[in-house]
Amino acid sequence: MTNLFIRRAAQRLPSLFAAVLVLGCAGQPLPPADPELGRLVGYHTGVFTSAPQAARDSSYQVVAFRAVRIWPDRDEGYWVYTEQQIEGQERPYRQRIQRYFRDEQGDIRLRVYTFPQTSEHIGDWQSPERFDSLDPTVLSAEAGCDNLYRQVEPGVFAGSTIDEQCRNTWRGAAFMRSVSSVTATGFTNWDRGFTEEGEHVWGPRGGGYEFTKLSDL
After folding, report:
1. Ordered alpha helix ranges (H), 27-161
2. I need a labelling partner for 203 at 20 to 30 A (CA). Which of 47, 166, 169, 170 fits?
3. 86 phi, psi to nearest 5 deg
4. CA–CA separation, 167 vs 147, rounded Å?
5. pLDDT, tens digit, for every residue of 78-112?
6. 140-141 vs 94-102, strand pairing mode
7. Structural domains in the chain, sorted by start
8. What whole-number distance in Å separates Cα of residue 135 and Cα of residue 179?
């Protein structure tokens, strides 16, 4: 009887060993599947301010930019909630959800979404779990306004909208052009509106807003 028990135990050892491996690995963080994409998202999330630039040049306002990851279990890339607020104003002037992902060509793409009832999520960069109750099907992509990013040198990413695809009618514009650069210490973003003839009708003329990173989130 003892020999039979030993033989059966020995037969079970491979499966028991595999189970131990699975349980042991379950508590370990998995390495990022796309280190370059993860690095860009890490650089582009946190608490930022344009105050140093505004101190040098009064034509730029002091703007706070906050970005935090949401929906970490979703597998369509990295999801990020962002708020932008001018210093002294009570409410943010812009709230968006962004998705960073690889497209079919292997390029890094940033897609921006609007969503309803934004007032209910003011300040939720401090409580990202509140987005767990938001149904992703209510998101509306800003058509044609994806940004393509590439790492131009170690630790430096450059991004831009594509040609004249991001249509925009604010202040008589026909399309918007956005260019940006992102590093570990902050980012620069330059949004401008143009007519069909290429006339610049809105957005800063001297260069983009420069945001310095204050902290990670």
Report:
1. 35-44, 51-56
2. 47
3. -80, 135
4. 13
5. 999 999 999 999 999 999 999 999 999 999 999 99
6. unpaired
7. 32-215 (2.40.128.590)
8. 30
